[in-house]
From TrEMBL:
Gene3D superfamilies: TonB-dependent receptor, beta-barrel domain (2.40.170.20), TonB-dependent receptor, plug domain (2.170.130.10). Its main location: membrane. Belongs to the TonB-dependent receptor family. It is a multi-pass membrane protein. GO terms for biological process: cobalamin transport; monoatomic ion transport. It holds the Pfam family TonB_dep_Rec_b-barrel. This is TonB-dependent receptor. Residues 245-622 form the TonB-dependent receptor-like beta-barrel domain. It is found in: Cell outer membrane. Residues 1-22 form the signal peptide. GO terms for cellular component: cell outer membrane. Keywords: Cell outer membrane, Ion transport, Membrane, Receptor, Signal, TonB box, Transmembrane, Transmembrane beta strand, Transport.
Length: 649
């Protein structure tokens, strides 16, 4: 990190030397916590550049869900909320709390970086280092930004499919509080509350929630119900220490217990997951606000265990823990009125331990692993002519095991016709070193090579009919080499199936070249007062480009999916919504011989304000009781009705 510090200092010195060429410039805040315009309008985007930028200056494809949109969706699980946006699909081994994979533009779960308040959530002890979104509930979330495509320069080389940045609520008034309560089908209940305030010196908020459901059988033909319970807490505190100097701490904690079933069989097994996220930071401005800085420390700790009561002698079947520690510096410098630079340095340490006790070996040693990565990044953004914003950046990473790598990213956004037309294009590279589980677990392979990616997209956004309508079309393409997959041992003389003479079920191997390309379409129309029509459609051709499965569709990746919704606010202030989601057929295996059928779900939602700050709401999920699956032979919820009350004081 000495080299990283010297390099960032040299860059900062060069920028300071150029200060004579700009007068009275202000740098954007060096923050990733989110920005919302008046009345919840998504005027600014933070995740794309790590600073607040007008959306028409962002060359990447991004969707912003503000607090009014999140509340209107009445979603409980974050992945179900994300699935309403373009390019996003998910799979789940049963109900809430079970293993959940999130896919953006056909990329793998481990190729998406998930953040809470700017802190990466990827779990080093998970099978491929990705984040299991099964325990991620809406809770005290006020904003979500979904950035599609490679975003490696600012968010790390593994940000290949995209970035999901979740921002918890931050007070804007001296005192505020909120209570949400709902109940419904499958003996489901959800209660969450928060309180906070914003003053001249201190901004604070504390929130908590509890969710419970009896659920349904995770094994589709099964009879016994698999329930889920989750407890969560979050908090944030920011203190102004002096002019342009502040310190802050943010934390999110959750503890979940979920019942699940074995492979093609009912089972009394259950799992426990405990997750802790902590961020502490110091923010300070220099040169009268032209150079804003942030020094931070982020920590994540994920502990998981599975227990099988049917095996009383050795009930523990799985035990794992993953930890991340990251120090970071970020600076933002206003070079001129139209040129700004974002630069920083990070050092990250990750470690994991995992084991799977059995009746024959009730107390096995933990498989352990650790890794360190040092990074430097720099990005320059310039409005070269009125309306045309160019962004380019580089990231240098030095990996303990896989050495150094440099990645690039570039984008352009051109706002024409007073912003009614916006042209966008971006290109990005990706690099993912094998995860700790892929290297050091009982299925590990120390001879793995890094995965490499190239990704680009181009699109147009058009507003017309005096702002009543908006349409967006984006083409995307991604190529991957050395993708890592789990290889099953089914006999033969493969030495990796019996390392040291000990047989195992399988191992991880570099087996794939893949490619994905497709089209995203978004439409919104307000034909009359109180009526809003919106929809999106994504075509994704994601396939294997090597080996015996060449030309086959990647497993559990739908080629076609889309969402439609119609919302009408009646003169009596009753709001009603009909929402339709379609997911095309997928395949459950590499050779595409096991088909998972397509499905269409219809949800009905309504809300009514009883008085200022008090609202009653309700919904019917899967209104036509569609029988469907996201993974072959795993259950999904049928029709369910829910009702709730929302209060804001």
């Amino acid at each position: 990190m000495i080299r990283a510090f010297l390099s960032s200092t040299a860059l900062a010195t060069s920028l300071i030397a150029g200060a004579a060429f700009a007068d009275d410039q202000k740098a954007p805040e060096a923050d990733v916590a989110g920005a919302t315009g008046a009345n919840g309008v998504a005027e600014l985007v933070v995740t794309a550049t790590r600073t607040a930028q007008p959306i028409e200056k962002v060359g990447a494809s991004v969707t912003v869900l503000t607090q009014p949109a999140i509340e209107a969706s009445q979603a409980i699980s974050v992945v179900e909320l994300l699935a309403q946006t373009p390019g996003v699909s998910f799979t789940r081994n049963g109900g809430p709390g079970t293993t959940t994979g999130l896919n953006i533009r056909g990329a793998e779960t481990q190729h998406t970086v998930v953040l809470i308040d700017g802190v990466k959530l990827n779990d080093p002890s998970s099978t491929q280092g990705g984040f299991n979104s099964g325990n991620l509930l809406v809770g005290d979330i006020s904003r979500i930004e979904i950035l599609r495509g490679a975003q490696s320069t600012l968010w790390g080389s593994q940000a290949i499919g995209g970035v999901v940045n979740i921002v918890t609520a931050e007070p804007t008034t001296p005192f505020s509080s909120s209570i949400d309560a709902e109940a419904g089908a499958r003996k489901t209940g959800y209660l969450r509350a928060g309180v906070g305030g914003a003053g001249d010196k201190i901004v604070w908020r504390v929130a908590g929630g509890y969710y419970t459901t009896d659920g349904f059988s995770a094994y589709k033909p099964g009879k016994e119900k698999d329930g889920y319970q989750n407890r969560g807490l979050s908090g944030r505190l920011r203190i102004a220490l002096a002019q342009n100097v502040s310190a802050e701490v943010r934390s999110v904690y959750s503890k979940g217990k979920n019942d699940f079933d074995g492979f093609n069989v009912d089972s009394p097994e259950f799992g426990r997951t405990e997750e802790l996220v902590i961020y502490t930071g110091l923010n300070f401005g220099l040169l009268d606000g032209r150079w804003n800085n942030r020094i931070g420390y982020a920590y994540t700790d994920t502990d998981r265990e599975n227990i099988n009561p049917a095996r009383p002698a050795v009930p523990l079947t799985f035990d794992a823990a993953g930890k991340n520690k990251r120090w970071e510096y970020q600076g933002v410098f206003a070079v001129t009125e139209t040129v700004s630079a974002t630069f920083g340095a990070e050092t990250e340490k990750a470690r994991m331990r995992t084991r799977s006790p059995s009746v024959s070996n009730p107390n096995p040693a933990f498989a352990t692993g650790k890794v360190g990565v040092d990074s430097l990044y720099g990005q320059l953004q310039a409005e070269v002519v009125p309306g045309l914003t160019l962004t380019a950046g580089l990231r240098y990473e030095d990996h303990d095991t896989y050495g150094s790598h440099t990645l690039g990213q570039a984008s352009a956004a051109w706002a024409l016709n007073e912003g009614n037309t916006v042209l966008r294009a971006s290109f990005g590279q990706g690099f993912r070193a094998p995860g700790l589980y892929e290297l050091f677990s009982e299925y590990g392979n120390l001879n793995l090579s890094p995965e490499k990616f190239d990704s680009w997209d181009a699109g147009i956004e058009q507003r017309f009919l005096g702002g009543k309508a908006r349409a967006v079309a984006t083409w995307f393409h991604r190529e991957a080499d050395n993708e890592i997959r789990y290889f099953s041992c089914t006999g033969g003389a493969d030495p990796l199936c019996a390392p040291g003479g000990v047989s195992r079920w399988g191992y991880y191997s570099n087996v794939l070249k893949t490619k994905a390309q497709g089209l995203e379409l978004i439409g919104e129309y307000k034909p009359a007062q109180g009526l809003v029509l919106s929809g999106n459609y994504t075509y994704t051709d994601a396939e294997t480009d090597s080996g015996s499965a060449k030309g086959k569709q990647l497993t559990r990746r739908p080629k076609n999916m889309g969402n439609l919704s119609a919302t009408y606010v009646w003169p009596v202030k009753l709001s009603t919504t009909v929402a339709v989601r379609y997911v095309g057929k997928t395949y459950n295996n590499d050779l595409n011989t096991q088909v998972v059928k397509d499905y269409t779900l219809v949800d009905l939602r309504a809300s009514y304000p009883l008085k200022d700050g008090l609202e009653v709401f309700g919904r019917v999920e899967n209104a036509f009781d569609k029988d469907y699956q996201t993974i072959l032979n795993y259950g999904t919820p049928g029709r369910g009705a829910f009702v709730g009350l929302r209060a804001r004081f």
